[in-house]
Design goal:
single chain, 67 residues, two-stranded antiparallel ribbon, 3 helices, 40% helix, 21% strand, binds zinc ion
């Protein structure tokens, strides 16, 4: 049972930490953890899914609504 719980916890951590959403073409240097974030709802460009590591490489930081 412990092993199963650990697996679930790791899966959740992976899903929430590895993939982020950005607004392409925006001047803002932010990334978002959820595609339905308030910050992204104001995006007039395309919402793009990318790896957190890639977003960080572009100098993006976590959006203020999600801190
Ligand atoms: Zn956000």
């Amino acid at each position: 049972m412990k092993t199963l719980l650990l697996f679930v916890a790791l899966s959740l951590a992976h899903n929430t930490s590895d993939t982020v959403y950005i607004c392409s073409g925006a001047k803002g240097k932010k990334y978002h953890l959820r595609s339905d974030c308030r910050g992204l709802s104001r995006c007039t460009h395309q919402v793009v899914k990318m790896k957190l590591a890639d977003a960080a490489k572009e100098g993006r930081t976590l959006c203020g609504f999600e801190k």
